Amino acid sequence: MKHFFYTLFGGLAAIVCGVICAYLISFTWHAVRPYIIHTASTTLSEVKTAFVSPDDGTSISGFTRTIRYTALEEEDILDAAAQALPRGADGKITSLAYLVKNLTRNTVAVQYNTDTVLPIASVTKLVTAIVARKLIDPTAHITLNREVLSTYGNTAGFRVGETFTARDMLYPLLMASSNDAAEAYAQFFVRKKFIQAMNDFTQSIGAYRTSFKDPSGLDGQNVSTANDLATILEWIRTSDPEIISITQLKSKTIRSHTFTNPTHFLSWSNYRGGKNGYTTEANRTAVQLFAVGASKDIYAVIILGSGARDSDMIKLLEKVK
């Protein structure tokens, strides 16, 4: 009889323990399940993105995810158009205004509508860089807040709360054409005063038909002329050449960020830097420097309102070879 009660109570105890264990396992699973699913989903998504779509703006090496930004969406480089040259039958230039100027000798080689005022898109960022270097200590730390990162367009992979020095911010601004970087400079200084300083600067060097409403070029009222842009480019070349040097870099890594320059002319030995832009109002724009001829004279090539920027650039350069 005693053995019977031991067996009975032992069995009941085992059942109770089993129920308690099952309850604890169930409770634990429901608590951690969302996290596990989220982590697994994120990991699979990242792996899929990294290996199936490598142009998403990131790359993965081991357990490290690196943020990589290119301005391909904004720049929209026309591979087919460039590769088609010189097969184009009509040889027409699509730009609404253009200028090819020998800056070494201060002579004009080719020009069309050079005083026509047109939107300039992200070419604006050259002046943003000039003014930022004039007004902001290069060692100052600029923190990216939600207001800055809400700027339309790509965010260069920035995260809220990240901090960059004013000098380091030049790389995403000029290489990746980051609208966020432009806004970060303006808001750090006081946006209204920063934009006023941009306008004051262009007036001070004689670019009288140039004016700005924002620091990035998104605003269609950021306007200039081919002649004015040549004046601005020449000022940079002689007075602050570091700005141009940055635009000649293919990539730049700052901590977890690698900013990549999508300009195709980087592969040309005679390319000396510049800036492209694109908005609906402006179409494709560009200001570029090239060393041309045996004497390696520096030519500025300015393009505004282009439907085929790279094609137009090559056709204009062929006129001075």
Overview of the molecule:
- By secondary structure, the chain is of the alpha+beta class.
- It has one domain: Beta-lactamase (3-Layer(aba) Sandwich).
- It has 11 helices and 13 strands.
- A hairpin with a 2-residue loop joins β9 (251-254) and β10 (257-260).
- It is globular and about 50 Å long.
Short description:
This protein is α+β, with helices and mostly antiparallel strands and 321 residues long. The chain has 11 helices and 13 strands.
Helix and strand topology:
Layout: H1 2-52, E1 58-61, E2 64-70, H2 72-75, H3 79-84, E3 97-102, E4 107-112, E5 118-119, H4 124-135, E6 141-143, H5 146-149, E7 163-165, H6 170-174, H7 179-189, H8 191-204, E8 223-224, H9 226-239, H10 241-247, E9 251-254, E10 257-260, E11 271-279, E12 283-292, E13 297-306, H11 309-318
Parallel strand pairs: 2-10
Antiparallel strand pairs: 1-2, 3-4, 3-13, 5-8, 6-7, 9-10, 11-12, 12-13
CATH superfamily heading: DD-peptidase/beta-lactamase superfamily
Number of helices: 11
Query: How many structural domains does the protein architecture include?
Result: 1
- What is the SS-derived class? alpha+beta
Name the strands of the widest sheet in spatial order. 4-3-13-12-11
Question: Mind telling me the C-alpha Rg?
Answer: 28 Å
